[in-house]
Design goal:
Layout lengths: L5 E7 L9 H14 L6 E7 L2 H12 L7 E5 L14 E8 L1 H11 L3 H16 L7 H16 L22
Parallel strand pairs: 1-2, 2-4
Antiparallel strand pairs: 3-4
């Protein structure tokens, strides 16, 4: 998938800034969608927010009253039979909290940029229907994340994805 088939709407709250350039965010999104076999034009929203906002979203959408690193809010799937042929898919929103991500990067020994790459890939996979609710799903999603990250330029600090960081009892 070329980047013109993947339109990214990027936004940031005051003071919140991702550790990746806008161009790299767009390239990561296009790369993940292409690797997942998506051929329909897609719109993805990627937002950088402060911890108060991501805490609100986490409470509203997941029932967890705590800040987190990333939240994915799905809208449509590229294979939705209700979309007309060639009609763009509004895939959804990936919301990241850069300050939380930076602390988590330090805790896991990754760079802020690599942690952001991981979480962007993670969030996009959620929008495409992947999950990690049980151990077999978590292992499959982790393996897919590593495949996708291996295809991207990184800082080399992601030797193994650890999805346990997304479970309720483990965090930065």
């Amino acid at each position: 998938m070329s980047e013109d088939l993947c339109t990214c709407d990027l936004s940031a709250e005051d003071g919140a800034r991702l550790a990746l350039s806008d161009e790299e965010v767009r390239a990561v999104c296009a790369s993940v969608l292409a690797a997942e076999g998506v051929t329909r034009p897609c719109l993805v929203s990627v937002s950088a927010v402060g911890e108060p906002r991501i805490r609100e979203l986490n409470a509203e959408w997941r029932g967890v009253d705590a800040a987190t690193d990333v939240i994915s809010l799905e809208c449509e799937r590229p294979d939705d039979e209700h979309l007309a042929p060639g009609e763009p898919c509004e895939l959804g929103d990936v919301v990241l909290a850069p300050a939380y991500v930076a602390r988590q990067a330090a805790a896991f020994g990754t760079t802020d940029a690599d942690e952001t790459r991981l979480l962007l890939v993670h969030g996009l996979l959620h929008l495409l229907g992947h999950d990690h609710l049980d151990e077999s799903e978590a292992e499959a999603m982790e393996a897919r994340e590593m495949e996708l990250l291996d295809a991207l330029p990184t800082d080399g600090t992601l030797s193994r994805v650890v999805l346990t960081r997304h479970r309720e009892d483990v965090g930065a």
